[in-house]
Every structure is written in structure tokens, then in C-alpha cells.
Write a structure and sequence with these properties.
By secondary structure, the protein is of the alpha/beta class. It is built from four helices and four strands, in the order E-H-E-H-E-H-E-H.
């Protein structure tokens, strides 16, 4: 997320929403790295995190909540995340979708935009 921070700029009146999946290639550093991203999201002024995945997504969500992100949603899969987002998004919200390619969160972006997303 730190590389993508500039992409979460908030539109007038909108929320900063980060849809964050698990980073799958981190080995022994995985838990702490997910906690760090949760803290970073709070420091960056994210209003809502949608954490997608299992145990690592839960660590990210718990850390973000403890660091001050006001709204957290923890979902198990991309389809659930997309359905949730479709139900709560407002016209001026800014949404960042980020994870390892293995998480295929590009499926969420495709569902929200109706356009093909390459994941690059």
C-alpha cells in the first residue's frame, strides 16, 4: 500500500476506501507486514478498510482498527467484497484495490467498474 498511497486521494465529500487483500509471498514476515499495512492505512486517513482473505487479512483489519481506521469490513472472498462495496459506495468515494496478484483482487475492480482489469 505504501507504493500506492498517492492513489487514495479523496474526492470532494467522498471517503477513502482501501480494499486490501493478503500479501502471499512474505514468509516469516507476513503477520507483521499485514499489521504494518493496517497501521499505515490509519496514518494515511483511510475511512474504511475492506480486508479480503483469511488470517492475514484479519491481522491487517485488527491492526487498522486499533490504529484508528473508523470502519472495517473483513470478508472471505472477492465476490463478497464486491457485493459489499456495491452496496455502500457513494459517488465521490475513492477506492484503492491492492494485494498480491495471487489474491486476484482485480476481480473486485472489474465488478465495480464493469471494465476489464489486467491486474498490472
Amino acid at each position: 500500500m505504501t507504493e500506492a498511497d498517492g492513489d487514495t486521494t479523496e474526492a470532494a465529500g467522498g471517503r477513502r476506501i482501501a480494499v486490501l487483500g493478503e500479501m502471499l509471498e512474505l514468509g516469516d514476515e507476513a503477520v507483521e507486514a499485514h499489521r504494518e499495512i493496517g497501521r499505515f492505512a490509519a496514518e494515511s486517513g483511510v475511512n474504511l478498510i475492506v480486508a479480503v482473505g483469511g488470517d492475514l487479512a484479519k491481522q491487517l483489519a485488527l491492526s487498522a482498527g486499533a490504529a484508528g481506521v473508523p470502519d472495517i469490513a473483513l470478508v472471505g472472498d472477492n465476490a463478497t467484497a464486491a457485493a459489499y462495496l456495491e452496496s455502500i459506495l457513494r459517488p465521490c468515494d475513492a477506492v484503492l484495490v491492492r494485494a498480491s496478484r495471487g489474491g486476484q483482487l482485480c476481480q473486485i475492480a472489474q465488478a465495480l467498474t464493469g471494465q476489464a482489469v489486467t491486474g498490472l
